[in-house]
Write a structure and sequence with these properties.
Blueprint: H1 4-37, H2 40-70, H3 73-84, H4 94-125, H5 130-134
């Protein structure tokens, strides 16, 4: 079973991810406004800034994967399920509950960002947008 130190470590990374996701959400809102204004310079700037935050998120995901890989197999699998939102149930510690709550917050914010990104992509690309081509 995962100990509090392992859960707290994963939660610290999840909190950093939430901060980066918030920044992506704000930049996505700014991007949407720039698209509405047809301000191509701002669109490029916000896309670039957003990409930097997405790369930061990718780094945090890699940190979590490494943490999972360093644990005994059963614990690594459990942590993977928790941080992916696939874990059903409760973890018997306050640290476990905090990690589950943070993971749920991250997922909700990610869904909001994805919806906003889809709307922007469809406005910019129409039938040639990533989402239309992928059938999503």
């Amino acid at each position: 079973m995962l100990n509090d130190q392992q859960l707290d470590s994963a939660n610290a990374i999840q909190r950093k991810m939430y901060t980066a996701l918030n920044e992506v959400a704000e930049l996505t809102d700014e991007l949407s406004q720039a698209v509405s204004r047809q301000d191509q310079v701002s669109v490029r700037m916000f896309l670039s800034m957003r990409q930097e935050e997405i790369e930061r998120l990718t780094g945090y995901q890699a940190m979590l994967r490494r943490q999972c890989d360093q644990l005994p197999p059963a614990d690594g699998d459990l942590l993977r399920k928790v941080i992916s939102g696939q874990f059903q149930g409760n973890l018997p510690t306050a640290s476990g509950d905090a990690l589950l709550r943070q993971t749920a917050k991250n997922y909700a914010l990610l869904q909001r960002v994805r919806q906003a990104d889809r709307a922007i992509s469809c406005r910019l690309g129409g039938p040639n947008s990533f989402y239309m081509k992928q059938g999503k």
